């Protein structure tokens, strides 16, 4: 009788432990604490209003900013037929898109390149970047689209990496975007298996923040000197969080942007292509007006295929193709 009771206790204990493990896995494997992050449009009424709002953003924190990283408005001093918003990646700044912005400006566009929140500070070792939040990125997206509405009759928004996720959020919510070009979005990271992405996000959102160098050998000497040389895991968690917010919205609604172009780089060793495909499939399920373009693997492009100061850069091929994709989408 005693042996039977002991056996029953062991079985119940096994069931209890199994239940706890399954409940824990269910809890951490599902993205948690996702806000709705609805858009709150307040578009500029005309060019003058847009220019004023851009100037207000430009002078905010001016004394602390690297001069290369302040908001850049390449303006023809009037409303043009097309306005282009360019959104840089995490730890970079508007200088990343400066050269491509000039190309669009020379085509007759008004171009807006605004630093992401907590970016572009002159002190490269700042810990301020760790304060970045999904809510701030969404508010940033709303603001730059609002400004662009007064800069051009049509609006193109293009972003890379974290800027790509920010552009994706805008594409999901803003019907006044004529074309959203999303380049290598950081919906997930290659080092994290896709099924564990939500779990990693959940765990790091409650752990104390930690930092790593982008280059363990060069550390603070890593180029370019206008970008931050290290990253915050808390900030990366917030970028993932915004990506899950986009995915959640995409499950139920078609993206609002008139056209989306997803730009992929087969040699990208940073972001998860599988996570990007998950978002794309959700959009396609709603019959979104979406096309994809993949650069040839033989180009050996790095993750940052925009900044001309990157060693593996091929802007002679990348820039004309991105400009062409924008023209095709608008026309």
Q: Give the CATH class of the largest domain.
A: Alpha Beta
Number of E strands: 9
Q: Can you write the helix and strand succession as a string?
A: HHEEHEHEHEHEEHEHEH
Beta-strand percentage? 5-15%
Q: In this structure, how is the largest beta sheet organized?
A: 7 strands, mixed
Helix/strand-derived category reads alpha/beta
Distance between the termini: 82 Å
Shape: globular
Provide structural commentary.
Keywords: Membrane, Transmembrane, Transmembrane helix. Residues 80-206 form the Serine aminopeptidase S33 domain. This protein has 331 residues and is α/β, with parallel strands linked by helices. The protein folds into two domains: 1-30; 37-330, Alpha/Beta hydrolase fold, catalytic domain (Rossmann fold, 3-Layer(aba) Sandwich). The protein has helices spanning 2-29, 47-59, 98-106, 134-151, 162-173, 197-206, 233-252, 273-285, 315-330, and strands at 72-74, 80-87, 110-113, 152-160, 179-183, 211-213, 230-232, 260-264, 290-294. The strands form two sheets. The protein has a seven-stranded mixed β-sheet with strand order 1-3-2-4-5-8-9, with helices on both faces. A two-stranded antiparallel ribbon has the order 6-7. α3 (98-106) links the parallel β2 (80-87) and β3. α7 (233-252) packs parallel to α8. The protein is globular.
């Amino acid at each position: 009788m005693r042996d039977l009771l002991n056996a029953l206790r062991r079985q119940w204990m096994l069931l209890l432990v199994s239940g706890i493990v399954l409940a824990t896995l269910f809890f951490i494997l599902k993205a948690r604490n996702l806000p709705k992050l609805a858009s709150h449009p307040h578009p500029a009424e005309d060019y003058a209003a847009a220019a004023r709002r851009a100037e207000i953003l430009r002078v905010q924190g001016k004394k602390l900013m690297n001069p290369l990283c302040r908001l850049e408005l390449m303006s023809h001093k009037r409303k043009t037929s097309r306005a282009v918003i360019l959104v840089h990646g995490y730890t970079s700044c508007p200088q990343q898109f400066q050269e491509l912005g000039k190309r669009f400006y020379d085509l007759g566009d008004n171009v807006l390149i605004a630093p992401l929140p907590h970016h572009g500070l002159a002190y490269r070792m700042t810990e301020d970047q760790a304060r970045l939040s999904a809510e701030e990125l969404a508010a940033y997206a709303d603001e730059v689209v609002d400004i662009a509405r007064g800069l051009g009759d049509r609006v193109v928004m293009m972003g890379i990496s974290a800027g790509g996720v920010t552009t994706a959020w805008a594409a999901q919510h803003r019907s006044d975007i004529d074309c959203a070009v999303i380049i290598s979005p950081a919906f997930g990271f290659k080092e994290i298996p896709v099924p564990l992405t939500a779990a990693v996000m959940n765990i790091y959102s409650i752990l104390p923040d930690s930092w790593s160098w982008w280059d363990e050998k060069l550390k603070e000497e890593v180029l370019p000197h206008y970008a931050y040389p290290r990253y915050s895991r808390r900030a990366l968690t917030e970028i993932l969080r915004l990506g899950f917010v986009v995915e959640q919205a995409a499950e139920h609604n078609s993206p609002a942007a008139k056209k989306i172009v997803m730009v992929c780089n087969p040699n990208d060793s940073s972001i998860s292509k599988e996570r990007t495909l998950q978002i794309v499939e959700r959009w396609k399920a709603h019959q979104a007006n979406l096309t994809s373009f993949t650069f040839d693997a033989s180009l050996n492009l790095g993750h940052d295929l925009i900044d001309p100061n990157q060693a593996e850069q091929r802007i002679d091929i990348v820039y004309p193709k991105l400009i062409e994709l924008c023209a095709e989408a608008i026309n």
